[in-house]
Amino acid sequence: MAVTQTPRQPTAIKPSAEEIKNKRLNDENLKLAVEALTQDGAVVVEDAIPVEDLDHLNAKMIQDSRLLQSRGEDSPFNYNKGNLQQDAPPWAEYFHPSIFCNPIATQITSAILGPRPKWTFASGNAAMPPLPGIENERQPVHNDVEFPHPPKCFALVTNVPLIGMNPENGSTETWLGTHNRTVAREGGQKGQRATGHIPQEQLDEQVAKAGPPIQPTLRKGSFAIRDFTIWHAGMPNKTEDIRIMLAQIHFASWFPNPTRLELSEDIKPILEELDAKGELNLEVPVNWVPKEEVQKSYLDRALGKKYKVNKTDE
Description:
By secondary structure, this protein is an alpha+beta fold. It has a single domain (12-303), classed as q2cbj1_9rhob like domain (Jelly Rolls, Sandwich). It is built from eight helices and twelve strands. The protein has helices at residues 17-22, 27-39, 51-69, 97-100, 103-113, 200-210, 268-276, 291-297, and strands at 12-13, 42-45, 77-78, 80-85, 118-127, 155-161, 173-174, 223-227, 232-233, 243-251, 261-264, 286-289. It has an eight-stranded mixed sheet. Strands 7-9 form a two-stranded antiparallel sheet. Strands 11-12 form a two-stranded parallel ribbon. α2 (27-39) packs across α5 (103-113). The chain is globular.
């Protein structure tokens, strides 16, 4: 008789009230986070972001999600129309440091990547409710890193869901322990809407070795950090609510990466103040754009797969 393996959940860290106030994990919790990322390629930090900040941003991004979906074939979908690539509004009104440069998240990424990682990617995705007569599809399991990369960790992704995230509303399928791969390209097609997927034989081998993948549940106010190279797949949203999850990518300072953020000029003093108070701890290469200009263009940016992250990218 076959035995069904129960998927192992990622390590979840709940900071104390003192840690939240100090905007830093204590040594014990930081050690847990580093160990989880080293072993599993992922860690969850619970209740670390004020829900009012999430609600404010979510209301605006839901409006944007509906606008993007209305574009049909011209919408910025990833693999299928139920999963939209979507940038957050990049001007000060919606730029909450607790979300975009959370000091606990940066403390963890700096512990792995070294001092002052480079923050050069800020985007997200919207898992859309099913449309009448159209069943949302899952993404193929894939690896975002389609270029030669070192065997050690060089980049970490902070994922912030704007509402509670669970298997019902499309939490990302994650294959723990599949990071630190030295294969330059995992296979499958390379293209704007069909990035290299992981071959089925490799998926079968991974299940036999480490068990099935997971779809974690995160309460609103929590965030996850994952290794950039871990295998994952967007999953269908079976609810009536749009589920938006942001992604901020930090790169080690030594990794060649010419990408720059594009932000409204009114965010610059926010970052400068955080840096002066010692709460940023990031290098943030930015092309500063007038607010009126960025408001007109931010929903028309390239898909995430077109972002340049390495000089050897095609």
